[in-house]
Amino acid sequence: MPLIPAALVNLALPLTRPLAAFLREDVFDYYGRLLHPQLQLRRVFARLKARRLEGEATVVLTLSPSRNWRGFRAGQHVAVTLEKDGVRHTRRYSPMRAANGRIEIAIKRLKEGLVSSLLHEEADSIGYLEIGQAEGDFVLPDTLPPRLLFLAAGSGITPILAMLRELKARGYQGELNLLYYGRQRNQMAYLDELRAYPGLHLHVCLTGEQAQAGEQAGRFSAAQLDALVPKAEGSAVFACGSHGFTEAVQAVWQQRGWQGLACESFTPPTWHLEDDKPVTLTFARARRQLAGRTGGTLLEQAEAHGLKPASGCRMGICNTCTCQKREGAVRDLRTGEISTKPDETIRLCITAPVGNVVLDL
Amino acid sequence: MSKSLSLNPDQLAAFGAELDALRNRHLAELGEADARYIRRVRASVRITELAGRLMLFAGFFPPTWCLGVLLLAFSKIVDNMELGHNVMHGQYDFMNDPEFSGKHFEWDHSCTSDAWRRTHNYQHHTYTNVLGKDHDIGYGTVRIFAEQRWRPFYLLQPLWALLQAVFFEYAIAVFDLKLDRYLRGRAKLSELKVKAPPVLRKLWRKFIKDYVFFPLIAGPHWLAVLAGNAVANLLRNLWTFTVIFCGHFTEDAEVFPLSVLKDETRGGWYVRQLRGSSNLSGSRWLHFLTGNLSHQIEHHLFPDIPARRYASMAVEVREICQRYGQHYNTGSFAGQFFTVLVRLFRHAFPSRPAMQPV
Ligand code: FES
């Protein structure tokens, strides 16, 4: 039970900001946490307000973030962190606007998804969740175009729905089309809300079961697009789904030389067991992409390309080369273990890529 | 003279493989228990610091003042050793918790954590007890091995060591700057201009905190608080100095020439760590208050495994060492420290290394 009320904490939070220059953040946060989970200098904890099911496979959490949160633009994503067995796990979800300054995140249950199953099964025991600041440039432009086309597959619907809610709030009057792909009808989230959305041309496309009246069958294709949205050319387009899905969309736009396509995709990392396969290494902060190979240490490969990440012992003991891996599959060369977790701490000198890797460097 | 057998390359490889297996077994087990442990350690640091400082505010009333000093000293010792030193090795990086991230942890010590990570985690742990590479050998002020070149300066080294013990945190803080190089004209002053500011900033911050800020807010009891903070810092300095000098400077600890680094294998590295380090035997409290540096050998073999596991790892390490004929250097705190003092006085005077077996 927090010792002080949330309202008071959130009034006080902006006032603590000047303290940041004098205090050690972890010390302030330690004592703050004893009084109230949201009393933190910079970190954001969101109170879990409600939880409901959308379709059969998606749980929607309503969250009320502390005032340390700087808000978001529809379509962006936030890191959500949960702890399990002493280890914190981070996944990214797209927040959507809900009533009273709250936000919603929708979590689709994945077969082997650790965080998603935690959020499905143990959400009732969670009082507060840590979330990050919003990131990403998959967002609506400031001046809205006359025609908007959205293409969503599976849980790719969440940033799109966030945009639709925002459009409604901004009183958008233009033409709105949405092609929404899913394997089975009852697994698709937010169908009721979308059907009731005024002025939205919704096309539900099923890839894994028989289509009924008013529904389409089959994966995204140029022919299907032409049949459903004759005026697709010239629309501003937002596509979100698995990597394969956005690639298929991109291919059509490229082939036809159309403009105005923005894509966002999520794909579980894939990996090779053999050494010496080509992979892409992305150094996010340096904004560089390098051609790498599986099996060699990340440190050596980065250096071979002229980058100079901090290093010392080069044998995994000094902790100098430690950095965050944002995503990708890597192997720990000491134990041989392969890890595909997003946002985890690794040491460059004893870690080899086994697939494409994005580093926070 | 080494008390350990020398191993042939095959034996070295097998020795290293056994230690690697031990390490991987523990790596695989990391989880909940370790996370809960380090959070409790952190709680003990924060709570005792708060309690200690509050008690000092009560002024020079002897019982609360003494208790306040002890609590504060306890807090600083645990912060530096069981919490800071271990966290900065990345032992708890597996938690993915920014507050226990080895790269970002900040401690209650005048030495900046960045400098510490460089001199300690990298130089000292990689080149342990290699002459000319591991600057922790004698910390540039004392000669404890016959292999170090003698200079007249060392004649007074018992005094230098005492001064260093009293001001240990400052000694460590400026250690990384290697000031003697500038005095001897071996390095350019412009380099110092870059390296000094962060060190000075941290020194200044710690100084303001303990000797200006807290005395000021204590109002009339400022002197009690000021004195209390000074004594707590002194206790911490003496304790950490003693523990650290017992880690590599005991009678049986060995130093190595630069040539060992050439083509050193993993097994060779393990052997060097083992021979250069020494343990302290004692109660659970001793292990806790030394931040498990009482298990210096295990710490040097496995610097990134949570220190709470060293006690149980030590049983297996000893057994492995015995099978390979390697001396496992351990003894009581007093006994080990005594041998350090003997070295300190003996090598103040010119001395020659004993013949090494070829
Ligand atoms: S360089 Fe020392 S741990 Fe990687």
TrEMBL record, chain A:
<feature type="domain" description="FAD-binding FR-type">
    <location>
        <begin position="41"/>
        <end position="141"/>
    </location>
</feature>
<dbReference type="InterPro" id="IPR017927">
    <property type="entry name" value="FAD-bd_FR_type"/>
</dbReference>
<dbReference type="InterPro" id="IPR001433">
    <property type="entry name" value="OxRdtase_FAD/NAD-bd"/>
</dbReference>
<dbReference type="Pfam" id="PF00970">
    <property type="entry name" value="FAD_binding_6"/>
</dbReference>
<dbReference type="InterPro" id="IPR039261">
    <property type="entry name" value="FNR_nucleotide-bd"/>
</dbReference>
<dbReference type="InterPro" id="IPR008333">
    <property type="entry name" value="Cbr1-like_FAD-bd_dom"/>
</dbReference>
<dbReference type="Pfam" id="PF00111">
    <property type="entry name" value="Fer2"/>
</dbReference>
<protein>
    <submittedName>
        <fullName>Ferredoxin reductase</fullName>
    </submittedName>
</protein>
<dbReference type="InterPro" id="IPR050415">
    <property type="entry name" value="MRET"/>
</dbReference>
<dbReference type="InterPro" id="IPR012675">
    <property type="entry name" value="Beta-grasp_dom_sf"/>
</dbReference>
<dbReference type="InterPro" id="IPR036010">
    <property type="entry name" value="2Fe-2S_ferredoxin-like_sf"/>
</dbReference>
<dbReference type="InterPro" id="IPR017938">
    <property type="entry name" value="Riboflavin_synthase-like_b-brl"/>
</dbReference>
<dbReference type="InterPro" id="IPR001041">
    <property type="entry name" value="2Fe-2S_ferredoxin-type"/>
</dbReference>
<dbReference type="Pfam" id="PF00175">
    <property type="entry name" value="NAD_binding_1"/>
</dbReference>
TrEMBL record, chain B:
<keyword id="KW-0472">Membrane</keyword>
<dbReference type="Pfam" id="PF00487">
    <property type="entry name" value="FA_desaturase"/>
</dbReference>
<keyword id="KW-0812">Transmembrane</keyword>
<feature type="transmembrane region" description="Helical">
    <location>
        <begin position="54"/>
        <end position="74"/>
    </location>
</feature>
<keyword id="KW-1133">Transmembrane helix</keyword>
<feature type="domain" description="Fatty acid desaturase">
    <location>
        <begin position="64"/>
        <end position="330"/>
    </location>
</feature>
<feature type="transmembrane region" description="Helical">
    <location>
        <begin position="159"/>
        <end position="179"/>
    </location>
</feature>
<dbReference type="InterPro" id="IPR012171">
    <property type="entry name" value="Fatty_acid_desaturase"/>
</dbReference>
<dbReference type="InterPro" id="IPR005804">
    <property type="entry name" value="FA_desaturase_dom"/>
</dbReference>
<feature type="transmembrane region" description="Helical">
    <location>
        <begin position="211"/>
        <end position="232"/>
    </location>
</feature>
<protein>
    <submittedName>
        <fullName>Acyl-CoA desaturase</fullName>
    </submittedName>
</protein>
